[in-house]
Amino acid sequence: MRHHSLDFDTIQNYQQPGAEEALDADEPQTLERGIQQNLAHLSPTVEVASNEDDPDRFVEYFCNQKM
Fold this sequence. Notes:
With about 70 residues, this protein is α+β, with helices and mostly antiparallel strands. The chain has 2 helices and 2 strands.
């Protein structure tokens, strides 16, 4: 399992109002593109938990890989 350590200042930034400022300006768009890519190419271990007539799509990803 991977462990990531964050410094105290980073943790404090995320706990404050306006935590979105902790992201670089281009990171929200990068995250959105990654999510769209994942939704377009679902893994065999994904279960779609929303109905076809739902306006949004909800998926559950069950990771069975060891890291």
